[in-house]
Amino acid sequence: MATHASAPPTEAGAQGEIAYASDGYLYANNGSTWVKQGGGSWPWVNFNGSPCSGAGNTCTIRSSYKVNKVVRLGSGHYQIYWDTNFSDANYAIFTTVGNSAWGETYACINKYDVQSVSSAEILCGYMIYLNDWSYISVMAMGNQ
C-alpha cells in the first residue's frame, strides 16, 4: 500500500491499488480515478509501553495519527487519549503487543466499562499476568 501526500491521491495508480492519503482516508483506484473508501480517518498509535516515565507516566509514542498521548496507569495498563472525541463510546479497539527481547507477539484487551468518547484503556498481558511491553499498537474505529 502506498502513502500519498495529497488527498485524494493525484499520482497515477493501477486498478485495484489501495493508497493511504494525507487526509487519513484510504483510497482505491478504479482504473481511472481514486475513490475515497467508507469509514473514517481512524486514530492509531504505536508506542513503547516499557518504560513510561516523566510527568504523568507518559509513554513514548513512536508514530501515531489523531492520538494526543498514552499514559501508563499500572503494569500492562494504559490509557490512550484521542485528539478528537468519538461521537459515542461504542467504537472498536484493535491491539497488538510484542516484546523485542522475547520475539513474541500477544494481544491486549479493551476495558469497555471505562471507555469514553475521549480515551480508552487497554490491559496487556501474558497468560494471567499484566505486563509492560516494548511494542504496542492500537487502532480505534468508529464515528469521530
Q: What does the main sheet amount to?
A: 5 strands, antiparallel
Helix and strand string, N-terminal first? Answer: EEEEEEEEEEEEEE
Structural category: mainly beta
The rounded Rg comes to 17 Å
Form type? elongated
Number of strands: 14
Helix content: under 10%
Strand content: over 45%
- Give the tally of structural domains: 2
* CATH class category name of the largest domain: Mainly Beta
> Mean pLDDT across all residues, rounded?
80
CATH topology type of the largest domain: Immunoglobulin-like
In DSSP terms (H or I, runs of 4 or more residues), the helix count works out at 0
How does this model look, in words?
By secondary structure, the chain is mainly beta. The protein folds into 2 domains: 1-38, no CATH class; 44-141, Immunoglobulin-like. Helix content is 0%, strand content 52%. The protein contains no helices and 14 strands. It has strands spanning 2-3, 18-20, 26-29, 34-36, 44-53, 58-65, 67-74, 77-82, 92-99, 104-106, 108-110, 119-126, 129-130, 135-141. The strands form 3 sheets. It has a 5-stranded antiparallel beta sheet with strand order 6-5-14-9-10, with no helix packed on it. Strand 2 (18-20) and strand 3 (26-29) form a beta hairpin. The model has no long low-confidence stretch (mean pLDDT 80).
Using brief descriptors, characterize the structure shown:
Immunoglobulin-like; mainly beta; 144 residues; five-stranded antiparallel sheet
Brief digest:
By secondary structure, the protein is mainly β. 0% of the residues lie in helices and 52% in strands. The protein has 2 domains: 1-38, no CATH class; 44-141, Immunoglobulin-like (Sandwich), CATH 2.60.40.
